[in-house]
Amino acid sequence: MSEKIGEYQALARKYRPQTFADVVGQDHVLSALCNTIDAKRIHHAYLLTGTRGIGKTTIARIIAKSLECETGITSKPCLQCDACKAIAAGNYPDVIEIDAASQTKVDDTRQLLENTQYPPLTGRYKIYIIDEVHMLTNNSFNALLKTLEEPPSYVKFILATTDPHKIPTTVLSRCLQFQLKALSVDEIKNRIISILATEGVPCEIEAAQLIARAAKGSMRDALSLCDQAIALGSGALERKSVITMLGTAGDGLIAEIIDLLAPETEANLAGVLSKFAQISPNFKAVLDDLAIAFHDLALYQMIGDNALGVFTLPQDILNTYAKVFSPESVQLYYQIVLEGIKEYSAAPDGKSAFEMTLLRLLAFSPEKKKNG
């Protein structure tokens, strides 16, 4: 990491993928895009959809590089020519990026589309990247539709949106659509570990796991959380600082809650509550983690360890407790925690809501009732 004041660049920006090979996940989309680009079957309009922070705008820029690279149309842009460098810097004259959320008026759209009649200044194509395209008004969509129906051969559109259902079907039908998926916890965790190794930042594996889980499929969110956690950890990514930042309890305390319900253990509720009192977590986040834990246990009991990468809890916790509880008990615990989450906003405070949920889990535990 740079030590010079003012030169630090956020991880999400510094490690933004520059080629298709750099993109994490999205193999189904990348394969199709690479094939169509290498075969020179260039569509006039692409639509990239998916949740935030998973690479829509990044992939749009890589497509632009692939089409404008001075070495020729290729799925592996050189990154060295003037076109590739200018697109990466955001100042290439023939790649126009528009944030539809801030330009929703039909006059803005018409003015933009009027420029499509002019050929590109230096590049092969004039490429319009329109982010959050679903924010356009109906009149703006109608104006866009006219150009999409009969675009000049040198004009290409790359549209990106988090909400494709708000886009008129007449526009959708004229685009080549690609659905990007949320990244898995393992994909994000491994990317975090790789980046921090490159940066020379000490990284605890469990800390990377916690951030990957909290990012909910978004690589951008994960790297932003990393920046915050590294600042809290005085230059290192540590489990303790990540737990403090996220307000979570960590897998260890979640396992202790589950252990309270096990038939062969004594319910040391006071000890567990004392540990929670010491860290003062976000109790809503703890309940969410507990619900995910019971979901993972139920799924693990049904499908086992089949390497699908669908589990959030560590393998050793799943192995331990999947054998302890009946599937019916896990379903009951899951429902109790969901009810606790629903009642959270009505409780006097988060701590009370959490404690009442724990008491309810113990009160209705079939395993505890069997043992008297």
pLDDT < 50 stretches:
1-5
Distance between the termini: 58 Å
Residue-averaged pLDDT: 88
Write down the overall geometry.
elongated
Strand order of the largest sheet: 2-3-4-1-5
What does this structure look like?
It is elongated and about 75 Å long. It folds into 3 domains: 26-179, 3-Layer(aba) Sandwich (Rossmann fold); 185-246, Orthogonal Bundle (Helicase, Ruva Protein, domain 3), CATH 1.10.8; 250-370, Up-down Bundle (Zinc Finger, Delta Prime, domain 3). The protein is α/β, with parallel strands linked by helices. It has a 5-stranded parallel beta sheet with strand order 2-3-4-1-5, covered by helices on one side. Residues 1-5 have low confidence and may be disordered. It is built from 18 helices and 5 strands. It is an enzyme of class 2 (transferase). Residues 42-186 form the AAA+ ATPase domain. InterPro entries: AAA+_ATPase (IPR003593), DNA_pol3_clamp-load_cplx_C (IPR008921), DNA_pol_III_gamma-3 (IPR022754), DNA_pol_III_sug/sutau_N (IPR012763), DNA_Rep/Repair_Clamp_Loader (IPR050238), HLD_clamp_pol_III_gamma_tau (IPR045085), P-loop_NTPase (IPR027417). It holds the Pfam family DNAX_ATPase_lid. DNA polymerase III is a complex, multichain enzyme responsible for most of the replicative synthesis in bacteria. This DNA polymerase also exhibits 3' to 5' exonuclease activity.
